[in-house]
Write a structure and sequence with these properties.
Layout (H helix, E strand, L loop, with lengths): L2 H11 L5 H20 L4 H8 L2 H11 L2 H7 L33 H31 L1 E6 L6 E6 L3 E6 L4 E6 L5 E8 L2 E8 L13 E6 L4 E6 L4 E4 L2 E9 L4 E15 L4 E15 L4 E45 L6 E11 L11 E16 L1
């Protein structure tokens, strides 16, 4: 039997199909034939692998749908099974040609095994890195050489806690995967302490963070600049406290300062038991929580986030500006003691605008959100 005869018989057996489906089936076997012929197989070998036209037609009619044909005409052609010898009775052994649309997809054959292998490799790597980190981790102490009135802490990547104590020192965890580099410079009474924590372990870096505690005696000013990591400052009486965080949470508690300025690009800000002449919190993304905070003037600027406060005491003015979010909490005092000015493009406020001429003011500007302040004695 020649190729033309085989294809003609197959077309006759597929007469039950519609014209489009039959054409797809014929195209499939034509392309499969050409692929194998280009690969060096003879016509006899190819047709022997296909099986008889009736067997091929029966397999197509019983196992495929129109969707299968669409898949088959756009995917790699299946390889035939080993040759099947013709029988003396004119019948052939069952064909082992996979019908169109029944091949495993490239995703199942190649992509999925690769993904599984990568996930397993990363899991093993992370586990090994964590074990090595634990085995090599140690606590080190760095003694700062000279005291200063102003301390500037520049932390490239670290979780920094600043507390008051009798000595000027840095205690930190380090390991083979998390080396910590500390340098100090001094100019004009300003001591600059640079703390750099580098992560050498890919994937496991978040599990290997070192905690860094800076202990300082009484100072006039403290400035903390953190590129990545949390900042925690507690127990100081200062002239000025400044915190600039690019990414990470900021916590200030049990502190008194003439001026407190917090600038957080991304992360939550928490203030507890804080007293200041002027308090400014500026956050691009994140929320804020204020508890038992007292200040003559409070400025809150948030691009997106919610601010909550409990027993906030404002001596002169409260200014809040946010693009989207809410300002909710309790203030110590009476509403009639404050002039109120609220400008909202879209949102709600429980305070009505009023000019009471008392010297105290609440000003809020927001594009979308809500303002809800409850006054308590």
């Amino acid at each position: 039997m020649t190729r033309s005869e085989w294809m003609k018989e197959l077309s006759g057996y597929l007469s039950a199909l519609g014209d489009d489906e039959r054409e797809r089936a014929m195209s499939y076997y034509a392309e499969l034939y050409n692929d194998k012929h280009d690969g060096g197989m003879s016509e006899r070998e190819i047709l022997r692998g296909f099986g008889s036209p009736r067997e091929a037609a029966d397999m197509i009619l019983s196992h495929t749908t129109e969707e299968d044909w669409l898949t088959a005409t756009h995917s790699e052609k299946s390889e035939p099974a080993p040759d099947c010898e013709e029988q003396t009775t004119g019948e052939q052994a069952p064909a082992d040609v996979r019908p169109p649309g029944k091949k495993k997809s490239v995703f199942l054959r190649i992509v999925l095994p690769v993904i599984i292998a990568v996930v397993i490799a990363l899991a093993v790597y992370s586990a090994v890195a964590t074990i090595i980190d634990s085995a090599t981790r140690s606590t080190q102490t760095y003694d700062i050489t000279k005291p200063a009135d102003v301390l500037v802490i520049e932390a490239a990547s670290a979780e920094v806690t600043v507390v008051q104590g009798d000595t000027l020192s840095v205690v930190y965890d380090t390991s083979a995967f998390v080396p910590v580099n500390i340098t100090e410079t001094e100019s004009g009474g300003r001591k600059v302490l640079s703390i750099e924590q580098r992560h050498l372990a890919f994937i496991a870096w978040s599990m290997l963070d070192a905690e860094i505690t800076v202990t300082v005696p009484s100072l006039t000013d403290i400035s903390v600049e953190s590129a990545a990591g949390s900042v925690h400052v507690s127990g100081f009486d200062l002239d000025e406290l400044s915190i600039d965080s690019s990414a990470g949470s900021v916590t200030v508690e049990d502190c008194t300062a003439s001026d407190i300025d917090i600038d957080s690009a991304a992360g939550d800000v928490t203030l507890r038991n804080v007293s200041a002449g002027s308090l400014s919190v500026d956050s691009a993304a994140g929320g804020a929580e204020l508890a038992n905070v007292t200040a003559d003037s409070v400025g809150l600027e948030f691009a997106a986030g919610s601010v909550t406060f409990d027993r906030l005491t404002v001596g002169k003015s409260l200014y809040a500006e946010f693009s989207a979010g809410s300002l909710t909490g309790t203030m110590v005092g009476r509403e009639e003691d404050y002039s109120v000015s609220v400008e909202a493009s879209a949102g709600t406020s429980n305070l009505a605008n009023a000019d009471r001429g008392t010297g105290k003011s609440i000003t809020a500007e927001f594009a979308a959100g809500s303002l809800n302040i409850t006054f308590i004695e």
